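Worked example 3 (structure in, sequence out).
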């Protein structure tokens, strides 16, 4: 699957890789960064597609936090996948996320808001604890 040499992670699950990145919104324009992140594209109101450098066997976890210079209108950042296609999309190196307001609907982050995120994935199918 992934072709990089990763540092070892202390985890019960084998072959765990952790990726960290950010998305900074400036109106409808964005900047992004993070090791292992090829690109981030804005795909709609508060919606982004994160493309990874490497393919991984299994998606394990996504988490995010929003930092802002003024009051943020974003309450959470969620995955925008149906359960049935999450793993296949992830194996194709893409993850779709959406910023949500208090009502749980998609919302454009306030200008100069930064979404920091982490993705945890399994590198190979060997030593599998969970079955998907």
């Amino acid at each position: 699957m992934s072709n990089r040499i990763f540092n070892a992670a202390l985890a019960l699950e084998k072959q765990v890789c952790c990726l960290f990145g950010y998305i900074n919104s400036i109106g409808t324009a964005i900047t992004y960064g993070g090791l292992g992140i090829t690109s981030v594209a804005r795909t709609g109101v508060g919606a982004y597609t994160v493309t990874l450098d490497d393919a991984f066997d299994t998606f394990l976890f996504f988490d995010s936090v929003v930092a802002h210079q003024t009051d943020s209108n974003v309450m959470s950042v969620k995955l925008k996948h149906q359960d049935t296609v999450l793993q296949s999309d992830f194996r194709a190196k893409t993850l779709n996320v959406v910023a949500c307001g208090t009502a749980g609907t998609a919302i454009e982050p306030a200008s100069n808001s930064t979404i920091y995120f982490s993705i945890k994935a399994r590198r190979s199918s060997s030593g599998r604890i969970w079955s998907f």
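Notes: The beta strands are 16-26, 29-33, 37-44, 47-52, 58-67, 76-79, 94-100, 113-122. The longest helix spans residues 83-91.
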